[in-house]
UniProtKB/TrEMBL annotation:
<keyword id="KW-0479">Metal-binding</keyword>
<dbReference type="InterPro" id="IPR050337">
    <property type="entry name" value="L-rhamnose_isomerase"/>
</dbReference>
<dbReference type="GO" id="GO:0016853">
    <property type="term" value="F:isomerase activity"/>
</dbReference>
<dbReference type="InterPro" id="IPR036237">
    <property type="entry name" value="Xyl_isomerase-like_sf"/>
</dbReference>
<keyword id="KW-0464">Manganese</keyword>
<dbReference type="GO" id="GO:0046872">
    <property type="term" value="F:metal ion binding"/>
</dbReference>
<protein>
    <submittedName>
        <fullName>Sugar isomerase</fullName>
    </submittedName>
</protein>
<keyword id="KW-0413">Isomerase</keyword>
């Protein structure tokens, strides 16, 4: 199933008049306020988010998994699915592979397929939180932190292999998330496991090509429920500092205890030039991996406010590697990912509307009410016409989810792949 630009243009032509009216109305209002509308649209056009290879199969929990038909059975199929997302939105031009869930068989074929869809290979993810089919040692009691050297070595070697795979595909970074920790008090010596982790990460860091970055992801709990070695941004930051300049912290929105001020963490990391990677999702309770913006859109907007401020101010911080790390449980994954992409762009556009000069002025005056008004005025603006305009300019679909439904893409995928196809990976 491959969508053509012509199909999308025809769909756009049918909706262009309504869009034009909405866009003109909003643009006039914003320009009167002194906002650089063309500049914002350009930024939206250039925003790209990586799609993880594991998000395209049916989601689920350990209690059940409900298939939806037409699932991508191979990595090639997954790249095709991302191709659909990308041609509709023009903002999903990258894939992030999880190894060994998605090991390429034929590198040339995979690379060709990806370039056919204008997709690049983003960060590669290692996996030492599950035992692999033929490995000698088990990670039941930890991987990079393990008390036994030979188990740490096996986990380090796995990361070397992942770097190797990434190099063949043109990736430029490695993401390490460890589930290492303990389930019961007394199980681990906190200092020993921390030291072991630092030593292992340093070995991995030193093995990376000079042009590569290392992203260290943190998470407070799960699957370990008493302690996790890299439990918070502070631990990740400290380990990244120990590794070196090209090691960074990765923030996954779901990896915080309830009510954590994530926007402040973002600001702190960017201030120190150490925010390297970003996993988008939303949550109500824990690492729920819900659709981006589905539960706490205002929090997402406040986070984007700090990201935009940081990207303008902290030139020592690289532009973070954006990725959606969400699951969908009962939704069609492609529809869910389209919704996530939309939510990300909405929050980004709203944050770009914030008048930072006015905000600063009012912070000096200690006019708390006006400071709040400035943020909320941006948040309450319906920025969707700006996003549609950005998509129009790049030949994407005005409304990708609507187009996905009108084109009956899922029906085509079911016809092509069958009702019972099952995704590789998770
Ligand atoms: C861990 C995590 C991490 C993994 C992915 C599958 O909860 O967020 O990024 O690689 O989920
Ligand atoms: Mn994650
Ligand atoms: Mn997670």
């Amino acid at each position: 199933m491959k969508l053509s630009v012509n199909q999308i243009q025809e769909y756009n032509n049918e909706n262009i008049q309504t869009h034009q009216k909405e866009f003109d109305f909003l643009a006039e209002k914003l320009i009167k306020k002194g906002i650089d509308v063309a500049g914002i649209i350009e930024k939206l056009e250039n925003f790209n988010v990586a799609i993880p290879s594991w998000a395209l199969g049916a989601g689920g929990t350990r209690f059940g998994r409900f298939s939806y038909g037409g699932e991508p059975a191979t990595l090639e199929d997954k790249i095709d699915d991302i191709g659909i997302l990308n041609i509709l939105t023009k903002s999903a031009g990258a894939i992030s592979l999880h190894i060994p869930w998605d090991i390429p068989n034929d590198y040339n074929a995979i690379k060709e397929k990806a370039s056919d869809h204008n997709i690049i290979f983003d960060s590669v993810n290692s996996n030492t939180f599950q035992d692999q089919l033929h490995s000698k040692h088990s990670y039941k009691f930890g991987s990079l932190c393990n008390i036994h050297k030979e188990i740490r070595e096996q986990a380090i070697q796995h990361n070397f292999e992942v770097i190797n795979i990434g190099e063949k595909l043109g990736s430029k970074s490695l993401t390490v998330w460890l589930s290492d920790g303990s389930n019961f008090p007394g199980q681990n010596n906190f200092q020993t496991v921390l030291n072991n982790t630092a030593e292992s990460l340093k070995k991995i860091y030193r093995h990376m090509p000079n042009s590569w970055k290392l992203y260290i992801e943190y998470k407070p709990y799960e699957p370990n429920f008493y302690s996790t070695v890299i439990q918070d941004w502070g631990t990740s930051f400290m380990l990244a500092q120990e590794c070196g300049e090209r090691a960074y912290t990765l923030v996954d929105l779901g990896h915080h205890l309830p009510n954590t001020n994530i926007e402040q963490i973002v600001a702190t990391l960017m201030n120190k030039g150490k925010l390297g990677g970003f996993h988008f999702n939303d949550s109500k309770y824990g690492d729920d991996d819900l659709t981006v913006g589905s539960v706490k859109p205002y929090a997402l907007f406040l986070i984007f406010n700090e990201l935009v401020y940081g990207m303008n101010t902290n030139k020592n911080n690289p532009v973070p590697a954006w990725m959606i790390d969400a699951s969908h449980n009962i939704k069609d994954p492609l529809e869910d990912l389209l919704q996530s992409l939309e939510a990300i762009l909405i929050a980004y556009a709203q944050a770009l509307l914030i008048d930072q000069k006015q905000l600063e002025k009012n912070q000096y005056k200690n006019d708390v009410a006006i400071c709040q008004e400035i943020l909320q005025d941006a948040f309450r603006t319906d920025v969707r016409p700006l996003i549609r305009q950005a998509r129009l300019n790049t030949n994407g679909a005005l409304n990708p989810l609507e187009a996905f439904k009108i084109f009956k893409i899922r029906d085509y995928l079911i016809k092509e792949r069958g009702l019972k196809s099952k995704a590789s990976g998770l």
